[in-house]
Fold this protein.
Amino acid sequence: MTPAGGSAVQAALAGDPVLAEHYADFRAKTEAALDPALVALVRQAVANVHGMGAASIDESGLDAGTRAAIAYARRMPFEHTAISDAEAAAMVAHLGEPGFVAFSVMTALADAECRAALVDLPGLAAG
Amino acid sequence: MSTTPRVSSAIPGEPAHFGSVLAHQPAIAESFFALYGRFWGSDVLAARIKEVARMRNARVTECGFCRNVRFDKAVAQGLGEEVVDDITDGYETSSRLTDTEKAVLKFTDALIHDPELLNGDAKAALQRHVSPAQIAELGLGVTLFLALAKALITMGLEPEVMDRTVLPTPAVLEAAE
């Protein structure tokens, strides 16, 4: 199984370099729009929800906005339809509209990548 | 689930929809549409099969927008509404879906819902009907369908009402190649 820090989708596309390059670019552009520390925390939080990843997050030194973003990210895997207008508005206030757009895409992609790893997509694609 | 946009449109004069909201991040938008066009333009896995997986994701994630869109390439490959109607719980007994499509649906359910569904028999069926290269493309597709449906829903971009709409299948833009 691909480690939570890697991309199972990227690994599965090893036989199609063009599609792999497009996917890597999309993933990189999404991450580049956000603070790298936040990206890492969100990926870790989502992986933890899926029972993947080693350590849980130590939130003691984080600001309130970052803690709220982590809490929001934890809802994406199994509670995406229950996220409220108020929770989303808090994220928009913290990140700005462009930041919220990137955050939404990156968090949802992190969830989907964990799921791809859990079905061992790279192993299935390797035959 | 909200049908009130939580993000404004970044394109003057256009309402908030996925494209106009993604325009807040032009680099992400350009990269996504290039990827999505390449994915749908590839014939490693037939568009009909990709659309079957997309329809299943739309129903499981409760994405109303996704559920009401049809891509014309899949329609031309015979994916009529009587087949789409069978992409619901109990699809295993459908007489309209092919064995390949049922194997793809089980994989889709495993990825978006419960990995335990891809048990020995389901995995064997998938590998009997779908080549490794096709599985790679299918996995990419389901990953994107799931992520974009959730992003769309959480950004409040679900339509209050929407008719079934056949759209041109995403394609590679020549200028981007």
